[in-house]
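Batch job 17 of 40 flagged for manual review because the log was empty.
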Amino acid sequence: MRSIWKGTISFGLVSIPIKVVAATENHSVSFHQVHTADGGRIRYRKVCELDEEEVPREEIGRGFETEEGHTMLLTDDDMAALPLPTAKTVEILGFVPAEEIDPIQLDRSYYLAADGKRADKPYVLLREALRRSGKVAVAKLALRARESLGMLRVYEDALALHTMLWPDEIRSVGGVAPEGQVAVRDAELDLADTLMETLGELDWDELRDEYREALEELVRAKAEGTGPAPEELRRRTEAGGGKLVDLMSVLERSVQEARSGRQEGEAATVHELAERQRPAKKTAAKKTAGKKEPAKKAAAKTGTKTAAKKTGSKAAAPKKTATKKTAEKKPAAKKSTRPRKTA
């Protein structure tokens, strides 16, 4: 990674040579301004408003406009003469718990790399001291032509620097929050808590820029001559709108959708599946058995009647024999030797 700033960390009497490199990168799709008539690029030129001529970069200086509307020209020598002790130094002012710094004060993120072998030991010393204390260091440094506050902390095995805004650069929140008393019921809070628990933890690896993906797909489709983006992308965009009226119904619907989404995303559990299907199987078995038994009885009756018609009185002989055998085997059942029950 290319360094954008070099200097030293001033940690008491300890000096740590470091290089500052960007910790983040922007993946947003950039556009060019073009002339729609012929596709030519539209470029900005720096033109002097007095003579309306383009000015080369080496002839462009800094100008500061006063309250009276006068522009004061500041040269490089003027800027170099300013007292700026942090021009090449990250001066540590103190150490505080990380929770004392509100994230709204953080600006940009950088990595601090040790500059040379002689910086390895003091670099590791500061890193381990921060790690053991659980605190972050607040420092001052001059970066990008201005002096800024900075927060140094341990990120994995490296030192990270987050530039911070000055306290007077944080705007007041007055007029932002709803004015007046807004009543929120406990039932609504309970549903909100349920929704938060149902959504579960966040999987950072699954996060992606869907707008950038759709835009790149659109560009590819245009390049291949297949026309605009698919209709599915348009429907997805239109589905995002809507007007929420009833907070309770919206929360309940959100909880149901979140639960169904988690059930679809989770792996199937045999235990849960079995518990849900067992009652259905028993009911089905009972219903099937209930339907088959009358059919068997009806078939038996039909067969008996048919046999009786064909054989006449001969069919009565086997019934008597069966009655006698049953009576011999079960003496206690002599009184109930009716032909109908035995049959």
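Reviewer: the log was empty due to a logging misconfiguration, but the result itself is present. The mean pLDDT is 75. Unflagging and moving on to job 18.
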